[in-house]
């Protein structure tokens, strides 16, 4: 009788231990974008919050501006970085214009302001943000670098190495199409612009080759928080143009730093792609455009 009771007690204790180990080994890695049941479908960029149920969208921040020009409604998988790229803005500006209490968290269904207060939005800034992963990019989850007030980012594969800020560099102008772009790398073109498949140019090179700023501008993003781009730099040149430089092995500038045309801003690499290359984009009011319209002939 005593032996039977001992066996039963041992079995119960063992079962409890297994359950505790199982629970302790489950890690929750929830992205800052939360799906609170206001949008159908699943996200490939960020997991939905578990155990959520449908809520009244009128309770979400910015609901009163939903559908208005100059505003954007957050969808599953969105990040402030991607929204900023799609609308030609700095993610920090969007966070400020939208009065975000915590820029690390945005919610599905939340409405964000994507144009400066008082500015009349153009037709290009009222279109929905779309997936723009460069051709050949890996579908693997992004690395995890999270700026102090960034949204939905993961740690960078390589820590950016700040370069000394240039002296007396002007801030981006409010000009339009009058920029003089240069080629950001010296390698050959391995993939051209294709609106459906490749949002820019892929330029060949060796690991460590210099990546240069295509025009004067300000760094509005430097990190690895945008899936498919690896270690990425985004420069804002004026109120019209952004340029993006992806897959670098080392970043040599930091956010809010002003840079000169031709300044070395990164070293070429193969982060989040299958070979060493620079993926380069020119975006006019957030819309990817063919770089051949702006780069000089070689």
Automatic annotation (TrEMBL):
Residues 38-54, 123-148 have a biased composition (Low complexity). The lineage of its organism: Bacteria, Pseudomonadati, Pseudomonadota, Betaproteobacteria, Burkholderiales. CDD domains: LysM, M23_peptidase. Belongs to the E.coli NlpD/Haemophilus LppB family. Keywords: Signal. GO terms for cellular component: cell division site; cell outer membrane. Residues 32-68, 116-148 are annotated as: Disordered. Residues 1-30 form the signal peptide. This is Peptidoglycan DD-metalloendopeptidase family protein. The keyword Transferase does not apply. It comes from the Bacteria. Residues 70-114 form the LysM domain. GO terms for molecular function: metalloendopeptidase activity. InterPro entries: Cell_wall_metabolism_enzyme (IPR050570), Dup_hybrid_motif (IPR011055), LysM (IPR018392), LysM_dom_sf (IPR036779), M23ase_b-sheet_dom (IPR016047).
